[in-house]
Amino acid sequence: MTTAELARLLADRLPAIDLHGVIVEEADDQDIRLRFPFRDDLLGPNDIFSGPTLLGFADTAIYAAGQAALGAESVPLVSTMSTTFMRPAQAADVVTLSRVIRRGKRLLNAEAWLFSHTPIDPILHATATCVVKAWR
Questions:
Q1: Less Cβ around it within 10 Å: N or C end of the chain?
Q2: How many distinct structural domains can be found in the chain?
Q3: Cα–Cα distance between 96 and 98 in angstroms, integer?
Q4: Residue 82 pLDDT more than 90?
């Protein structure tokens, strides 16, 4: 799936609250790179991103990796997600790197790494199991 195809698919299938103005920067092979543009209204105390916002970014990143691996005919539904917060996310764009680790007929496993502005020091790591369903 190309970068443009994945961007279009996410815009068509996800509600605006899950998109947060997301930019699909890369959709090569199994690696998906998304950028969530910074907005002041996503900050919590001490000018760091709120935890629920970061969890939403991780969920969207995992969904994007699953969707890119499955194509338009199927949809990955996150059934379990384990998350580790590694450090606070500062007031900057959040970049995610995600990929499918294992793909089966009915389940897939994926992971997402979140970074402040550039993929150097991670702020969050999430792993998830998704149920694979036919689209419509």
A1: C
A2: 1
A3: 6
A4: yes
- Pairwise CA distance, residues 22 & 33, whole Å: 10
Q: Which domain holds residue 34?
A: 3-134
SS (H, E, C) 19-46: HCCCEEEEEECCEEEEEECCCHHHECHH
Instruction: Give residue 128's pLDDT band: very low, low, confident or very high (50, 70, 90).
Output: very high
Whether residue 63 contacts residue 20, with contact meaning beta carbons closer than 8 Å, is answered with no
Q: Measured between alpha carbons, how far is 1 from 67 in angstroms, rounded to an integer?
A: 9
Q: Which of 63, 78, 62, 54 is nearest to 14 (CA)?
A: 63
Q: CB-based contacts of 67: which residues, under 8 Å, 6+ apart?
A: 1, 6, 9, 10, 13, 75, 76
Looking at residue 22, what is its pLDDT?
93
What per-residue confidence (pLDDT) applies to 63?
Answer: 96
Which residue reads 């543009």 in tokens?
Answer: 37
Q: How distant is the alpha carbon of residue 71 from its chain centre?
A: 16
Is the model's pLDDT at 29 over the cut of 80? no
